[in-house]
Automatic annotation (TrEMBL):
The chain crosses the membrane at residues 12-32, 38-54, 61-78, 84-102, 122-140, 171-190, 196-216. The keyword Transport applies. This is Nicotinamide mononucleotide transporter PnuC. Belongs to the nicotinamide ribonucleoside (NR) uptake permease (TC 4.B.1) family. Keywords: Cell membrane, Membrane, Transmembrane, Transmembrane helix, Transport. It holds the Pfam family NMN_transporter. It is found in: Cell membrane.
Length: 227
């Protein structure tokens, strides 16, 4: 993994997507007097991670681990224990696993080899997601987590997205996009209490755009690799 090579492989429109995301987050941070540096750092790391993940570059998974650590801190401060536990206890470890599987399955130009998913894999992941969601629901309920319903749904979408990333499926991006929508709602609710969380809302709006691009690009990768 060469960070400088990863940066050089970014196409102009990918750099543009990243740049617009960064500028949007910076503007949202500086426009309000109530500023939380953790939300800014977390958001910037997150959008940077996503553009590399969208390219199938393992550097994106390294940044995902760092993002999960910072996001866990932000979530803890607002008592979104579901988000904290999900990202620290699930997303970060799975991202570490993804680093290993991506390195072991290279294609060309720093690109991971895309895996074709089958019905058996979907059945296994669905059963595991049901178990994880049920367990987390009761944990979050015991912790008096705010906005319990969307927090629980976020666990489900995060688990599916992370797991599909681990197995190198292009459908990871669709589940992350679904997770982004849930998180946009969660952080809007948090922003109603404290404006310093607005960058997190815009962060996940940018995440949504990046994940949709990620799905499109991974579909192109799969087609190219099949040929």
């Amino acid at each position: 993994m060469n960070i400088f090579q990863s940066i050089k492989r970014l196409k102009w429109y990918e750099t543009l997507i990243w740049g617009i995301s960064v500028v949007t987050i910076l503007i949202s941070f500086f426009i309000f007097s109530e500023r939380n540096p953790y939300t800014l750092i977390t958001s910037l790391i997150g959008v940077t991670a996503l553009i590399f993940v969208a390219k199938g570059d393992v550097f994106g998974q390294v940044l995902t681990v760092i993002f999960a650590l910072f996001y866990g801190i932000v979530a803890y401060k607002f008592r979104y224990f579901g988000e904290m536990i999900t990202y620290l206890g699930m997303t970060a470890p799975i991202a570490v696993g993804a680093i290993v599987t991506w390195i072991k399955n290279p294609f060309q130009n720093g690109e991971v080899r895309v895996r074709h998913t089958n019905p058996r894999l979907w059945i296994i992941l669905s059963i595991l997601a049901l178990i994880v969601t049920t367990v987390f629901y009761f944990i979050l309920k015991c912790l008096n987590t705010p906005n319990l319903a969307p927090s629980t749904i976020s666990v489900t979408t995060s688990f599916m997205a992370s797991s599909l990333t681990l197995v190198r499926s292009s459908y990871y991006a669709l589940f992350y996009a679904a997770n982004d929508v849930v998180l946009i709602i969660l952080w809007i609710l948090a922003t109603l209490n404290h404006l310093s969380y607005l960058p997190m809302v815009l962060c996940f709006v940018c995440f949504l755009a990046n994940d949709l691009y990620g799905f499109i690009n991974w579909q192109k990768m799969k087609h190219r690799q099949t040929e």
